[in-house]
């Protein structure tokens, strides 16, 4: 068994992956588990490209009734996807992308972390999943919740303690992934240190920095004015005040230089923290919106992949066939993102 870069033996097969978005989570107007959106042919494509795993986001409310009982008919979609992965020799991260009382974008919701009833429903869901998939080995990891956002990281840790206990009572050796408070950013991982005493724990982080670069032109964060000037990477942030709300976070960076060094410093600090605490890392989301100019996207992706290689960090890119995708939604052809990844999949 190989060791991670930080020294923990947690099995292999999670070094290079991709996220399956908008299939069992973040559906919008889409159908749940629509085979036109994702099916075994997609899994075969992922395996043939050379990926070794995929992250499967599932919105908890999609598989739960309002009273907290589980819609077992909908669990069959997860069963089916895991079977496809097994057939094509891919590992899977089962990521519960939302739980009752959580929202990581738009109107932020952190009620889960203080509401006993919501916690009870969420822990019940994890107990059901742990029981249903307890026969799986380390080809399956559980990620308790995506991008928690709470006023106090101790509240998140307290919920993690309960969830780890609920899972481990049924599946004692299950590798479990935990993400730090406030969108799983690198600079909040220190809050997870008390949980590292548990065995088989992976620290799951996300990276979309500089955020005003990776999400420029994105409607959902208010950076989509039709005349918004292009924000380069690397390069100088242009004047933005005429194109965003007056309190928009991007205004704090007008005139700043966005550099490779700024990004590498973040990775270096994270890697040093992980080594100091013997923590295993997984970069579970990163990407650039596909409306950003290709040459800037290419610069950023190539840097991120090189840094993951340099610091020995496993990763799963966001996403498969969405607006950050490795595969074009209309043509099914590989995108610029996939072209940047290809050298690392050989």
Strand segment tally: 10
Strand order of the largest sheet: 1-2-3-4-5-6-9-10
What separation lies between the terminal Cα atoms? Answer: 21 Å
Q: How can the largest sheet be summarized?
A: 8 strands, parallel, barrel
CA-based gyration radius: 19 Å
Uncertain ranges = 1-9
Our count of helices gives 8
Rounded mean pLDDT score: 94
* Helical content (DSSP H or I, runs of 4+): 25-40%
What structural class do you assign from the helix and strand content? Answer: alpha/beta
Tell me the series of helices and strands, N- to C-terminal. EHEHEHEHEEHEEHEHEH
Measured by DSSP, the beta-strand proportion falls in 5-15%
Q: Indicate the overall shape.
A: globular
Question: Could you name the key traits of this structure?
Answer:
346 residues; alpha/beta; eight-stranded parallel barrel; two-stranded antiparallel sheet; 8 helices; globular; disordered N terminus
